[in-house]
Amino acid sequence: MAISNGKIEQLIHTLSTPKKEEHEISVAFINLIDSEGFEINDFSRILNIRTYTFLTVPILIDVAKKAISIYSEQVIEQFYDILRFMLTKNKINVIDFTVNLIIDLDGKNREAGRKTWDELSLYESDFDALNLSQQQQALFIISMLQDLCNPEFRLPKILPLFNSQDDIIRQILYVELVKYCDSYLSIVKEYFDKYVTLSSKQAEEFVNFYNSYVSFMKQRANCKELSSKFSQPALYEETYRQTTARMRELSIGIEKEIEQLTKDLSIKKVRPARGHIYIDYDGKLKTLTPVRRFAHFPNSVNALSALESTEYMMKINDNWDKITDICEIL
User: For residue 283, is it left (φ>0), alpha (ψ between -120 and 50) or beta?
Assistant: First the structure.
């Protein structure tokens, strides 16, 4: 059961009342979200062009936090349309809104902020984290790197903080980046070379760390004792056999589903062939259009045990409201 049009019009009337303060507007939105019958799909009805002019950053943050507290961080997806519209009108407000969520003390709000940052590709904006306060810079670094997601979206605005004149900020970035390198060593170095221009103790330490890490990885790759192919050949072969059998089973299942789908939709069949070509239903050879998608994946997360994985997720979702020392969340 969705909210009635009457409640929507009542909200618009309330917002249009002269001399309404931000707090009163926030309360009007929050009361409607809290009202009986309000559903998650109703957000598109109250966050649109009609209400855009009333959505200042503080109001939007209040509404988002209330929504997240009720529906979890996934509800932030309901805000994407109005945020995209706002990007065309006032990009600074969207960036302020997103950054405020990213550095929030509530773990769910931070997750919503990171999702919004990635979804709206704000790494392409002219946002400069060096303009944040020291505390905000520290929280921005930790929050953006702690979930090990989408380095291509995060690092372009994080690594310039190595150019900060603040020694503490550079040290926090170094500590977090070293952990990040367990998953994304090569891309971190790529962006480091691109964005870091200030010579500092921490920058030098990172270069030394990178060189040592690369040397270690090369030595480890040449150490047969660490390769299951040589140290546990029977287990390796059995795992390979079972994996191959499972992939073959999945492939056969997919082929059957496709065959059934082509029958249901009356689609004429085509057959893939060697050399990036396929045989069309009329027997002619045609070239396949190459489609490639490359995505970075945090390998270090895959190596965690069940307990370590649980602890890792709990740390990401931790609330920081009782933190008195930044070192507690590093």
Answer: left
| 116 exposure class (CB count in 10 Å sphere: 0-12, 13-18, 19+) | buried
Whole-number pLDDT of residue 327: 77
Question: How many C-beta atoms surround the C-beta of residue 121 within 10 A?
Answer: 11
Distance CA 178, CA 41 (A): 41
Per-residue pLDDT, 298:
75
Question: Which residues, 6+ apart, have CB-to-CB distance to 215 below 8 Å?
Answer: none
The rounded distance, in Å, linking the Cα atoms of 121 and 144 is: 14
Q: Is 83 exposed, middle or buried (0-12, 13-18, 19+ CB in 10 A)?
A: buried
* Triad 92, 94, 97: Cα angle to 5°: 110
According to the model, what pLDDT value does residue 201 have?
A: 94
Query: How far apart are the C-alpha atoms of 36 and 17, rounded to whole Å?
Result: 24
Pairing of strands 285-287, 277-279: antiparallel
Q: What is the 3-state secondary structure (H, E, C) of 109-154?
A: HHHHHHHHHHHCCHHHCCCCHHHCCHHHHHHHHHHHHHCCCCHHHH
Conformation bin of residue 128: beta by default, left when phi > 0, alpha when psi is -120 to 50: beta
Q: Which two tokens stand for residue 299?
A: 């390998």
Angle between helix 201-221 and 167-195 (nearest 10): 60
SS3 of residue 286 by DSSP: strand
DSSP state at residue 284: -
| Other Cβ atoms within 10 Å of 16 Cβ, number | 11
Residue given tokens 């704000």 in the structure block: 122
Query: Which regions of the chain are under pLDDT 70?
Result: 1, 266-276, 278-279, 281, 290-297, 299, 301-302
**Cα 21–93–116 angle (5° rounding)?**
115
**Secondary structure E strands in the chain:** 271-273, 277-279, 285-287
Lookup: tokens for 325: 């020392």
The pLDDT tens digits for 21-42 are: 999 999 999 999 999 889 999 9
Asked if 75 and 111 touch (Cβ cutoff 8 Å), the reply is no
